[in-house]
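Sample pair:
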Amino acid sequence: MRMTIYLYKQEVTDFTNLLEEDWLMPLEGQPATGAQLKRGFYTELKSQNKFDYETLAYMHTGSSVPSWLKLIHEGFEMPKTESSNCSAVVFVKCKGRIFAYTFGYAYSALNFSLIEPNFGLITVLNMCGSDKVRRVQGKTLEGSPFITFTQSLNAMSIIHQPFDVYRNLVTDISCPIDDEQYGKEAFGADALKIVVKDASIFEMDSYCNTFLEYFQQKTYQEYHDYIDYIRIVKNDPALLDHLDGLLCEALEQNDVFLNIVPVGFQLEEPELFRLSLADSKNRSTTEDYPTLSYSNVMDFIGKVIKFYMQKQKPTDILTMLKKIMVCPLSDEQQVSNRRKLYDNIAFECTFEKTRYAFASGVWYAIDLNYYQAMERELSHIPDITGELVLKPTHLNETEEDYNKRIGTESGYANFDRKNYQLPGYSKQRVEICDLLTANKDFICVKKMTSSADLNHLFAQMVVSAELLVGEDQYRDSIVKRAQESKKWDIDLSAKANGVNYVLAIISDKPGTLYQTLYTMAKINLIHQAKHVLNLGARVSLCKISVL
């Protein structure tokens, strides 16, 4: 029998509040809503008192007329037809912890704010071993979140699959298992999904005991310790409300860890950004701005709040963030796709010994010890801002214009958009760097607008370094271009040795560069910098200020 099992958090010690209230029969004297009456309630089942452990069960039955039935009925004579559904949940207490076995759609009625995150994920990894992952699914940690999925014919470790754990949050996993009692494969996310052969209602506590022992093991951390470090904050309304409150405070104060991030649009370099908000009568307040900046966003929020106050309708910033829409415009004023302003904010904060990062409308929780260790590791990457002295960029200056200007003013070779074409690949071009110095500083310039943009910068560095080591034609091309551009005789015979990749990041945030980078970018930077160092090159940071 296929079973889906959830574990409640350790602080949950009894059978109260395990289901959402609106799935239970209202208390006497309290009316039920129309939606509740339509879908029905979960009712407690009477035990036959045959259990030697604490347990409780609820069941829901109902019937409905499928929406597609009306379509068929228009052209055919049909008998009276209804579809029925039946769902149940069995709660089991084992070693002080409470488990939920869900059947049918009963999982939708659970109080997920009390559910232990990653219970199934960790249990499966401990059951199957670190090198027996067959399928892995994750969510990107940058830009517009999307689901990534890989599946291999043969079981192997995640780190050997085409799945980048430094840029994706693992959410779901499957592994083959050898235990004859539990079928051939286990699936793990927040829930554990597993086949139990010869299942018995009176042995559920025994299954719980087995899975709890697996969950409490630490063997998974040998290869998959990152699972403990970052998780999506979900199903916790009180925490999410508090974090949203911190976000609003930061927006009002222009906090150093807050940024407006124009991501997820079809237009890469829009001419304008249109901010708009429509009321219940479809009357809209609209303004066009050249950039999606903090000052422009706050200007529009101020106008919207003033508009609402005139109509004696008090409002708050969080409501505005979720109602205001951002739309990029091309030079022909054609409208591209729209997104909520709320989804275009990046913010980080520390609360109750946990680091929280907000990106694309999603809150992530990062283990504070891991975050601090990552900060220490990043602090060892040399910051040569004071040595290289790259001049500031102007507020609306493009990266292309900046590279042209600095190349001329500082005497650097401008390699921006002069990509190297891989032999044998007609459309495959590689970015060497943006600016090159006579001292073999490969300067890669990027505005700090989002984790996705910075990760593109890091990937550019890695590909360039790999080609320096592995491709004679690549090195010859750089030497030739330096000679043609600046009459420099750059020696790359030692391959990457002596080369310094300078990550020149444009930022108007006060403080050192590594401290103000987005957490998701920090994780990837550590990984990519180690790879480049192993190839023999150096890696440095350089902050470019904004006038």
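The mean pLDDT is 84.
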